[in-house]
């Protein structure tokens, strides 16, 4: 016997219609790339999202066709979130911090047909458009009078003229909730970047879960600042949860320095903010230097990299702000665990509570996790035994876009590439990473790319890239190099060799010349052994 409830597909268009109908006068505040502050309301987002949908229909863009963005967090980007996905197309948010070559590769792989970009990224678009023949429309996210006339970018229109003449009504289509809604490429895997392809269903379920009290605890009383970029896993799903709860949204644009973020937090009386540790480091540094205080901020979610204990302390002790440590992945939409205390922990002394807060947290309902040993057997939840962390749930990938990399699942579970313990209360703590990548300031650097470039130098016999702890960036890459017999290359020459081949911030901080790189029985480089050998090494930039 089936239940007799209405069978309505879970669609992203319902989020924006809800926000319009029930929170229409709720504010959206954006710092624009021009530097000024833009204000409007959820009803305006809905109206203009409908215009976006009409503009895409006008181009005869088909169901599931891809529309890409190269954009900061801002109101026009928000309109695209709802207009593109709501009308049945797939929003492809591209990370502008990647090298132009990687951006072109990603845009071609996704078969993007439209690219919407902030004017900050015009030079990037100028560098890639000739390599992206599939893109038939470029849309600059600006007013008509700011559109450059001699940019050299073909089929370029301003966003305002693109949507300006479009009707403000639109009948959102109904379709299978499992249809693709948005996509995000991750470099946190080996080989070429791979895309997680989210669905309407996974996005809505994640939006519900993210708003729960033990997750982000979002409500119509909150003023929310997503510092985490909308090009990185949909800003942790905040735009969707914001429409669902009707909270006020505050967008920082591209100004992520301590002063700009602090000013916005205070002016807009932000109660909840989310970002990677590096951004908060800049904010706390600015506040300390200038003796500043928060007047409204209550909670902040910090994730993407391990949150340093000193940061949790500084937020709690000096500012009375609760830090919620979070863990997730692009492949997980991204939220997996969040660290909040249980009732029985409330009576614990602060030092004991701190030990819990440092963990990455408990699984959110919808995410199941386990740790497994080398033999694939599940390991005990004792807080000491560590193993490979595997996850499953309705907002976790079952396959990458176009089947890249083959079947990623192991017995139905997604192996995260993180190594963790889980304690008897279900709190997970990351202890290491088994995947061969480095995360600097919340962004991935492929150690393989760095090694391949070094190996292309005529004087290099072997190269191994490892991440080193860094107080600001969490990790920075260095490359250990064995020179070819009788050949020479200096540190400076090798670092220069990286120029133009990868993004500047991905270039290793240092070159360490070694006699040999430790190898395992199968000839694989033993990075753990190399890291042990380099344990006394100090980064020049740290
Ligand atoms: P991304 O797909 O770029 O969001 O990166 C996901 C990866 O970032 C995870 O698999 C972890 O390796 C790392 N990560 C995310 N959050 C945390 C955290 N709170 N602590 C430690 N590592 C984290």
UniProtKB/TrEMBL annotation:
<dbReference type="Pfam" id="PF00501">
    <property type="entry name" value="AMP-binding"/>
</dbReference>
<dbReference type="InterPro" id="IPR042099">
    <property type="entry name" value="ANL_N_sf"/>
</dbReference>
<protein>
    <submittedName>
        <fullName>Fatty-acid--CoA ligase</fullName>
    </submittedName>
</protein>
<dbReference type="Pfam" id="PF13193">
    <property type="entry name" value="AMP-binding_C"/>
</dbReference>
<dbReference type="InterPro" id="IPR000873">
    <property type="entry name" value="AMP-dep_synth/lig_dom"/>
</dbReference>
<keyword id="KW-0436">Ligase</keyword>
<keyword id="KW-0443">Lipid metabolism</keyword>
<dbReference type="GO" id="GO:0006631">
    <property type="term" value="P:fatty acid metabolic process"/>
</dbReference>
<keyword id="KW-0276">Fatty acid metabolism</keyword>
<dbReference type="GO" id="GO:0016874">
    <property type="term" value="F:ligase activity"/>
</dbReference>
<dbReference type="InterPro" id="IPR020845">
    <property type="entry name" value="AMP-binding_CS"/>
</dbReference>
<feature type="domain" description="AMP-dependent synthetase/ligase">
    <location>
        <begin position="18"/>
        <end position="401"/>
    </location>
</feature>
<comment type="similarity">
    <text>Belongs to the ATP-dependent AMP-binding enzyme family.</text>
</comment>
<dbReference type="InterPro" id="IPR025110">
    <property type="entry name" value="AMP-bd_C"/>
</dbReference>
<dbReference type="InterPro" id="IPR045851">
    <property type="entry name" value="AMP-bd_C_sf"/>
</dbReference>
<feature type="domain" description="AMP-binding enzyme C-terminal">
    <location>
        <begin position="450"/>
        <end position="524"/>
    </location>
</feature>
């Amino acid at each position: 016997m089936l239940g007799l409830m209405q069978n309505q597909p879970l669609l992203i268009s319902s989020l924006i219609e809800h926000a319009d109908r029930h929170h229409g006068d709720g504010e959206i505040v954006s710092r624009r790339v021009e530097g000024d502050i833009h204000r409007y309301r959820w009803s305006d987002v809905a109206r203009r999202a409908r215009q976006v949908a009409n503009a895409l229909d006008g181009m005869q863009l088909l169901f599931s066709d891809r529309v890409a963005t190269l954009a900061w967090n801002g109101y026009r980007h928000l309109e695209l979130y709802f207009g593109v996905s709501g009308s049945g197309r797939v929003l492809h948010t591209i990370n502008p911090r990647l090298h132009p070559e990687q951006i072109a590769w990603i845009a071609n792989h996704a078969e993007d047909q439209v690219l919407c970009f902030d004017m900050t990224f015009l030079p990037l678009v100028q560098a890639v458009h000739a390599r992206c023949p599939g893109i038939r429309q470029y849309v600059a996210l600006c007013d008509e009078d700011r559109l450059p006339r001699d940019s050299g970018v073909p089929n370029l229109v301003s966003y305002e003229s693109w949507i300006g003449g479009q009707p403000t009504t639109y009948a959102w289509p109904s379709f299978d909730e499992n249809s693709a809604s948005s996509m995000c490429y991750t470099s946190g895997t080996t080989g070429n970047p791979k895309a997680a392809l989210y669905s309407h269903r996974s996005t809505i379920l994640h939006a519900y879960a993210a708003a729960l009290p033990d997750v982000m605890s979002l409500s119509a009383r909150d003023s929310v600042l997503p510092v985490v970029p909308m090009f990185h896993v949909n800003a942790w799903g905040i735009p969707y949860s914001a429409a669902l709860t009707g909270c006020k949204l505050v967008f920082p644009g591209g100004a992520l320095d301590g002063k700009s973020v602090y000013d916005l937090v205070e002016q807009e009386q932000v109660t909840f903010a989310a970002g990677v540790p590096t951004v908060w480091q800049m904010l706390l540094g600015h506040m300390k230097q200038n003796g500043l205080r928060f007047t409204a901020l209550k909670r902040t979610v910090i994730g993407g990299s391990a949150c340093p204990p000193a940061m949790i302390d500084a937020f709690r002790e000096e500012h009375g702000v609760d830090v919620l440590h979070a863990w997730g992945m692009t492949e997980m939409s991204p939220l997996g665990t969040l660290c909040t205390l249980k009732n029985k922990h409330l009576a614990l002394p602060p030092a004991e509570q701190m030990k819990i807060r440092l963990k990455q947290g408990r699984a959110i309902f919808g995410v199941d996790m386990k740790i497994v040993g080398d033999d694939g057997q599940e390991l005990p939840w004792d807080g000491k035994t560590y193993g490979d962390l595997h996850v499953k749930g309705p907002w976790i990938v079952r396959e990458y876009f176009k089947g890249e990399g083959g079947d990623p699942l192991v017995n139905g579970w997604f192996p995260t590439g993180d190594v963790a313990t889980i304690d008897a209360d279900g709190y997970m703590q990351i202890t290491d990473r088994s995947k061969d990548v480095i995360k600097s300031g919340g962004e991935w650097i492929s150690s393989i790319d760095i090694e391949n470039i070094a190996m292309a130098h005529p004087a290099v016999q072997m190269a191994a890239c490892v991440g080193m702890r860094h107080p600001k960036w969490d990790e920075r890459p260095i490359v250990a190099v064995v020179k070819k017999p009788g050949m020479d290359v200096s540190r400076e020459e090798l670092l220069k060799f990286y120029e133009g081949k990868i993004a500047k911030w991905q270039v290793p901080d240092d070159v360490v010349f070694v006699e040999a790189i430790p190898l395992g029985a199968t000839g694989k480089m033993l990075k753990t052994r190399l890291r042990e050998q380099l344990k006394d090494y100090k980064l020049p930039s740290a």
